[in-house]
Amino acid sequence: MATVKQPPPVHEKEQPKSIAAIVWTECEKIMLRVFDAKPLPPTFPRNLLMELYVARTILFASFTLGIRAGGYSCLYSPARQIFGSFIVFMFTYVFLPLLGANIAYLFKKDKLTLYEYRVSMIVWAFLCGTFSTISNIHYALSDYGAPNYFMPVLVGLTAHLIGNRFDNNRKALVGLSVGSAVLVSLSMLLMTSGLSIGAFFSLSVCSVNAIVALQLMIYDLVLDGPGASANASMTHVVGVIIIMINFLIVVRLTGTYLEDPGRNDVARSSPLHAALSA
């Protein structure tokens, strides 16, 4: 009896996902990480958490220098006149985040040395700050409270010091770490008579962003396990993106629109404190 050859199985090609589907999937992953309340493992590299916050502070300083540089008319005028506000906005909040993710990817794949990665990240953070100002050049922030530069370091320091006691209670660990920074910031606002609707709103946004940032850092360190490093590339990229979003929200919702950007020079001469509070 002749055997009948079976046709080879047909493997259907996986349909490429749309950009919207990819973005939605990544957002779901981030939300799961943010709301993760599992206890920390005994081998959690707590010392690296503080190092991550120190590295983040350096990137925030570069971001702030960019914020200042973007306020010069020799930069924002040509950019907006040549490319237009829409293209500048898309470049700031779409292209630059993708560029940061690409830098992190190249470093993870050993395509960049540690030195090249650090320099690239500092320059990238500076560009993020510069174009954040250029994109929002018509908005003046006159209702601001005391500076919050210390918030990231204070969050990291508190998590480092009290962490051993709250390894089994992630909610308490995150709440106390971020809460300590919020309490100090609120105290400074009261001491300097800077408590206002704008300042309180800014502090609230900063607090939410700080919780997100801390949870993502913890996730990365737990995921890397014994091989964890303070050079967690994507963690730093996400940190800068968070302060970009923080800056955008605070400026657009609490800032005053000015038709002439030149009138915004006084407001821009002071550091934009909330940008450093993620």
Provide the domain count: 1
- State the order of secondary-structure elements, H for helix, E for strand: HHHHEHHHHEH
Average pLDDT, all residues: 77
Gyration radius, rounded: 22 Å
General shape? globular
The assigned structural class equals: mainly alpha
Number of helices: 9
Order of strands in the sheet with most strands: 1-2
Helix content: 55-70%
The largest sheet is:
2 strands, antiparallel
> Beta-sheet strand percentage?
under 5%
> How many distinct beta strands?
2
Distance, first to last CA: 75 Å
Which stretches are poorly predicted, pLDDT < 50 over at least 5 residues?
Answer: 266-278
Protein name: Bax inhibitor-1 family protein
Organism: Caenorhabditis elegans
Keywords: Membrane, Transmembrane, Transmembrane helix
Question: Care to describe what's here?
Answer:
67% of the residues lie in helices and 1% in strands. The radius of gyration is 22 Å and the shape is globular. The chain has 278 residues and is mostly helical. It has a two-stranded antiparallel ribbon.
